[in-house]
Amino acid sequence: MAITDSEIQSVKQRFGIIGNSPLLNNAVSVAIQVAPTDMSVLITGESGSGKESFSKIIHHLSPRKHGQFIAINCGSIPEGTIDSELFGHEKGSFTGAHEARKGYFEVTNGGTIFLDEIGEMPLGTQARLLRVLENGEFIKVGSSKVQKADVRVVAATNVNLMRNVEDGKFREDLFYRLSTVPIYVPPLRERGKDIDLLFRKFATDFAEKYRVKPIALTEDAKALLLQYRFPGNIRQLKNLVEQISVLSTDNKDINSEILQRYLPKDSSLPALYRNAPADKEGLSDRDILYKVLFDMKKDFNELKKLVLETYPNQGKTAQLVKDHPGLFEGVHHNSAEVAEPVLLNVSPAQTVDHDEEIHDITHETEDESLSIEKKEKELIIRALQKNNNKRKYAARDLGISERTLYRKIKQYDLEE
Ligand SMILES: Nc1ncnc2c1ncn2[C@@H]1O[C@H](COP(=O)(O)OP(=O)(O)OP(=O)(O)O)[C@@H](O)[C@H]1O
Ligand SMILES: [Mg+2]
């Protein structure tokens, strides 16, 4: 059944989806088609690309629309409690389980569960999920009674789940089960003129919210915006428009020069560095630089080690170390001993040297990782302070998942 253009337009309007690019329209069309079925759907797309609305379209255009819709972020539930949250538990099934509790699959019976950040789901929970998807059965934690659930599952992820499968972090059978109908939400940079439409919509919204005149882009600024990569997609564009709407009080015509000042300087840095705000209370540029340098130093040491290990001729290796005494300092005890361990056919005596050499390097890396840990702890404390202990936002600033942050808070004993 082909979906008409007017159907697509009316659904976008109903769910507040701005944009008219073919990739976006295609995603909406797939959502409309799959909605009335009971099939599981996997929504994929980069962070901030607008996946959430698609889960709502699927629920509200389905016969389950009068049932419940629950959205659960798998990344924000601690690993120890996620089974019980989703499937419930019996009284006394673990320390602190004073009462029996119903899980989301029980209370959402007849409705839809949206499992956001599905890539963060622990393997044990994945097994339970697969069972409920295959035959509608689940068992509460601490129980032996099989229960039935009639729940539709819509999942979303901003990571490459196939890679998680390859890394053994995600069950392959579950991956295929979930992705019978995949919906791909395109990144903003692939939506062409939608950027301009979204900019204008957000400019009007924020002008109303802050009671200011709406900002508008000059032609050269539009061109600049179209070239920008938008790693944070629509969420980033929205924040950008809000920032300019509030801060550019005198000038509401935004040209490329003004716009440039609001765009992050370097979007090629990895997420952890890129997402870090550069204000005084937050993670300063210095912090970011410090961490980048640390990582670089680690890489260099690895490279030095590799050079020595792969250098083809013993005599030459010794010469190399002699010629560059500073360069290989710390990588070996004694440059004269360096030559022996590097060949593949090593005698037992040489192996000992080799071990020594490795030991020495490990030593240095250990010291370094201690400093990195110290720095990481500091970064986490600052991110938490800046976000009033709101882990969700602190995690976002740090470019890590909430679960990882939760683990690190425990690791560094930062709980209050
Ligand atoms: N097409 C759109 N029109 C208007 N607003 C949009 C559109 N797409 C997304 N947004 C807005 O952008 C923001 C980010 O969208 P959303 O939360 O759905 O991203 P996401 O894909 O779920 O990201 P993440 O993977 O980080 O959870 C929200 O405020 C949403 O309302
Ligand atoms: Mg989301």
Can you put this structure into words, describing what you see?
- With 416 residues, this protein is α/β, with parallel strands linked by helices.
- It starts with a helix and ends in a 5-residue tail after the last helix.
- The relative contact order is 0.09.
- The longest helix is centred in the last third of the chain and has 39 residues.
- The protein is globular and about 75 Å long.
- The structure holds adenosine-5'-triphosphate (ATP) and magnesium ion (MG).
- Magnesium ion binds next to α3.
The percent of residues in helical segments reads: 40-55%
Label the overall shape.
globular
Quaternary structure classification: single chain
Strand coverage percent: 5-15%
The N- and C-terminal alpha carbons lie at a distance of 56 Å
Number of helices: 18
Q: How many strands?
A: 9
Order of helices and strands: HHEHEHHEHEEEHHEHEHHEHHHHHHH
Low-confidence stretches: 267-283, 332-365
| Coarse structural class | alpha/beta
What topology, given as strand order, has the largest sheet? 2-3-6-1-7
Ligand catalogue:
adenosine-5'-triphosphate, magnesium ion
Return the average pLDDT rounded to an integer.
83
Which SSEs are present, and which pair or pack?
Elements: H1 5-14, H2 22-34, E1 41-44, H3 51-60, E2 69-73, H4 82-87, H5 104-107, E3 112-116, H6 123-135, E4 137-139, E5 146-148, E6 152-157, H7 161-166, H8 172-178, E7 181-184, H9 194-210, E8 216-217, H10 219-227, H11 233-247, E9 253-254, H12 256-262, H13 271-274, H14 285-310, H15 314-323, H16 348-386, H17 391-398, H18 402-411
Parallel strand pairs: 1-6, 1-7, 2-3, 3-6, 8-9
Antiparallel strand pairs: 4-5
The structure holds adenosine-5'-triphosphate and magnesium ion.
The site of magnesium ion has 3 residues, from helix 3.
